[in-house]
Amino acid sequence: MTVIAVVPGDGIGPEVTDEAVKVLDELQLGLDFDHLDAVNATTFQTTGTGLSPSDFERIRSARSVLFGAIGAPGINNSEYGRGVLIKMRFALDLYVNHRPAFLWDARLSPLRDDRRRNVDCVIVRENSEGLYVGVGGRVRADTPDEIAIDEEINTYHGVSRVLDYAFSIARRSVCLVDKSNAVPNGGRLWQRCWRDAVEGRPDIDCSHLYVDAAAMKLIADPSAFDVIVTNNSYGDILSDLTAQLAGGLGMAASANLNPKTGFGVYEPVHGSAPDIAGQGRANPVGAILSAALLCEGIGLGKAAAAIRAAVSSALAAGRCTPDIGGSLSTREAGAAIRAELR
Ligand code: NAI
Ligand code: MG
């Protein structure tokens, strides 16, 4: 039996994860789900840690993880997130954040010009170093003379392995996005790794953009992009942009991967959305497409394709939640997608 750890989390996390698990169940893939329901804000508040050592062991021993979202109003979400998501990323060395954006239905595009609407790209975000490593400090904190420093860490090993992954999934092109004109040291390292990576791939169309220009070009013509590879912070920001170009946060799926071990934590890009939690209004598509990515990651490519086809048909029929113009509840939207699988 292949064991998948399921971490629903908080807010709409359990609502959307439920629908994703039901879709996987429907396909009868021989998966065994280990539900880790104790990973939530209440546990964090009472014990001070989001992920207990025994929960972490269950995660580590699973084939991969289907994750919902964590976070709740009025608690230290940055510490909570560090204790759960960041802990998994670092302890399991999930150095790739794979974020596809695909426009399922032209009506979901915010762009007016229909010739430029097509989105079918993947942001490959470096997930283990960069600006988010938490290195730095504050000098003369909380005074008018405060200086705050956050260092950005880039290593040859870290950059080259994420570039390797980007090339491994490219269909026609890879675009490197950085800010090497203004960030000289990390910029030079990324550029050196990039030259080495490009040399080995004459079959792939390789280009480079500074991040500001990339933001503009993504709005002007998203159809020009296949794989975009970039650092942790630019990837964070640009993937929200591409998510919006493809119908919004409720639609966006992601995978935190270690391509070498084959382990992944698959999660919708959105958070726990306390503003709509408990109302049955959450769009389950991001979670369901994350389950499709999970299938792909564990070698069930046919199941992944079937899930995507079902999502596509349900959306084409307008069978979806209010955030993307439908009138179905979370459960009804999940059921509509499952119905397409039969
Ligand atoms: P959010 O993604 O939870 O919500 C942003 C907006 O999008 C809200 O108006 C929400 O209603 C809407 N939205 C999000 N997902 C939706 C869905 N599936 N269907 C329909 N509408 C949806 O981001 P926000 O509000 O900044 O954060 C809320 C909490 O989530 C915080 O505690 C934050 O720390 C946490 N968070 C957790 C993440 C994770 O677990 N990976 C990622 C981002 C935020
Ligand atoms: Mg983000």
UniProtKB/TrEMBL annotation:
<keyword id="KW-0464">Manganese</keyword>
<keyword id="KW-0520">NAD</keyword>
<protein>
    <submittedName>
        <fullName>Isocitrate/isopropylmalate dehydrogenase family protein</fullName>
    </submittedName>
</protein>
<dbReference type="Pfam" id="PF00180">
    <property type="entry name" value="Iso_dh"/>
</dbReference>
<keyword id="KW-0560">Oxidoreductase</keyword>
<dbReference type="InterPro" id="IPR024084">
    <property type="entry name" value="IsoPropMal-DH-like_dom"/>
</dbReference>
<keyword id="KW-0479">Metal-binding</keyword>
<feature type="domain" description="Isopropylmalate dehydrogenase-like">
    <location>
        <begin position="3"/>
        <end position="337"/>
    </location>
</feature>
<dbReference type="InterPro" id="IPR050501">
    <property type="entry name" value="ICDH/IPMDH"/>
</dbReference>
